Amino acid sequence: MTRRPLGTLLVLMVASALGCTSVSPPSPSASATPGGDYPAPTEPATALERGGPRDRPPVPGAPELPGAYRFISTPDFLNQDVADLTAAGREQFIDKSTGEVANSTNAEYDAALDHVITEMASHGTDDVLIAGDLVEGRWGRDDSRTGVFGPVKTQAQRLRAWRRAADVYYPAHRERFTSHGLTIYPAVGDHEVGDDPWQARRDSWIDFKRRHVPQFKRLYADHMMTDADGRARFVDRPRGPARPTAYAVRLDPHVLLVTIDVFERRGGDVHMSVDPAQLTWLRTVLRRARRADVPWVMVQGHTPMTTDVRSRNSTHLVYEDGTESDLWRTMVRGGVDVYLSGEVHDQTVHVFDKILHVSHGSLFYRGEASYVVGQATADQLVLENHQFRGTIGFDDRLWTTSSQGAPGHISYPYPSIVTGTLVARRTSSGGLAVEDAEGVLAPRS
Length: 445
What we know:
The protein is an alpha/beta fold. The protein contains seven helices and 20 strands. Helices cover 21% and strands 23% of the residues.
C-alpha cells in the first residue's frame, strides 16, 4: 500500500514558501551517469527530497556477463492510475472541483513514462517482472462525483464501476510495455484488490472491497493473465482461489520464475498469506525444478518476509509469520534462490536461509522511479539497481476515483544512475554465495 503523508495544502504551503510549485530532487555528478548530463548535486530543498532513494550516491556498474539472460524487476510500477480517459471516443466528464475534463494522464506523464520504459528496454531484455501494485486501484468510488465510471451508491454499482475502471487502466498499463517490445510478468499487489485496509466499522467502501476480492482478482486476470485470444498466458497454475493469479514459467533455460498470490481472503478479512492449494502447487513446482536442475529459481510476491527493510511512503505490509511461515519453509526446502518483493518502494537485500531476499521497487509518480537489471548464467547471478531522479509539481493533480490523485506535473529529464550492485554465484554444494555487493544492494547483516 502507498501511504500519502503530505496533503495538497501542506505541499502547496512548502512550495509557496520556496517560491515555486514543483519539487526537484538533488542530482548526482556528471561522472556517475552514462550521458554525463546531470548537473552537480544540490542540497535537498523540501521534505519530499530528504532521506529517500534519490539521495543515495552512485556506485560503479555491475560486471557484464557474456551471453547472460537479462530481465528487469520493478515492483510497484506504477502504483497509480494513469490512462487517457478521453481516448477512443469515450464520453468526457467535467471534474467540478477544477472545471477541467477528468483525465488520468497528460503529455508530461506520457513523456516521462516513455523515457523510463525506453531505458528499461535498452538493457537487451524482453522481460519485465512487476511484483504487484500496477495501479492505484481505489475503484468503486467517485470522490469528485464526476460519474466517469458510473454511479457508486450500491454494491452492484460499485462493482460495475470497478469493472469499467479495470477495462481502462489495466490495458493502458500493459500497452505501455508492449509498445516498447517488453513483456510483463506481474503479481497481485494490495492495490489490485482495493488497497488495504479491508476492515473498518461502518465504511461501505471498505466493506465492498473485502466482499469482492475474488471478483477483483478475476478482473485483474482477465486483462493481465490472458493473451489477445482470451486464453490463459500460463499453463502451470495452482488449483483453488489463486488459479487466476499465480503461475510458474521458464523465462530462460537458466531461470524459472514462480509468481505467488499473497492475498488470501479468510476469516472475514484479507490476510497476507497463500492458500493451502497454492502452497501444495508450489511444492510440486519446486520438486520439478530440482529434478530438472534449473540453475536459478526465483519467486516473486508482493510483500516482504521481514519488517527489517527500508521503506518509503508505505504501510509496511509483511507476509504473515515471515521467515517462520510455511511458505518460507517450503521455499527453503524446495531450493528457491531468490525472493523478489515490493510494497515498500525502496531497496533492501537480506540473505535468509541461503535465499536472496530482495525487497525493492519505487514510486514513479513521486519522481523516484527505479528498477533492477538482472543477468543470469548457469553459475552466476548479477543484479544492478537503477535509480532515477525526477521532478514533480503539485499545483494540480491527475484525476482518479479517489481524491488522492498523483501530482499533475512530472518530468524525468535524465538517465538513471546505478545505486547498488550484487554478484552471486552458485556454490559447489548447489547453494548461493554473494561474492560482491555495493550500495543499496549490499545485504544487511
